[in-house]
Amino acid sequence: xxxxxxxxxxxEGGKKGQDCAGMATFGTHFxxxxxxxxxxxxxxxEKVLEGMNVEVDEAAEDRKGGAGDLGKIxxxxxxxxxxxxxxxxTVLKKKTTK
Length: 98
Known about the structure:
The protein is an alpha+beta fold. It has one domain (3-95). 35% of the residues lie in helices and 18% in strands. The chain contains 2 helices and 3 strands. The protein has helices spanning 3-24, 42-53, and strands at 30-34, 71-77, 82-87. A 3-stranded mixed sheet has the order 1-2-3, with helices on one face.
C-alpha cells in the first residue's frame, strides 16, 4: 500500500469518526458512511475504520476518531468495484437482529 494513500485514509477516518461520535450524542449508534479515499481497496478501507476507531487524544489540537463504540457500514467504490466494511462493537450486538 502506498504510504500517502494510507495517511489519507487514516485522516479521513479520523474526521468521519468525529462526525459519527458527534451524532451519537443525539442517540444514533449505527452509521452508513461513504468514504472517498479508499480507492476501491479493502485494505485501505480497513485503514479508514482504524482511523475512525482510534481513541481520542484529549490533549491534541485536532480531535480525531472516537467512534470505536459505534456501529458502522463503510462504503467505497472505484470504476471496477464496490467495497463494503461493517463494524459492530460487542456492546451493540445485543441491539441487532439475527
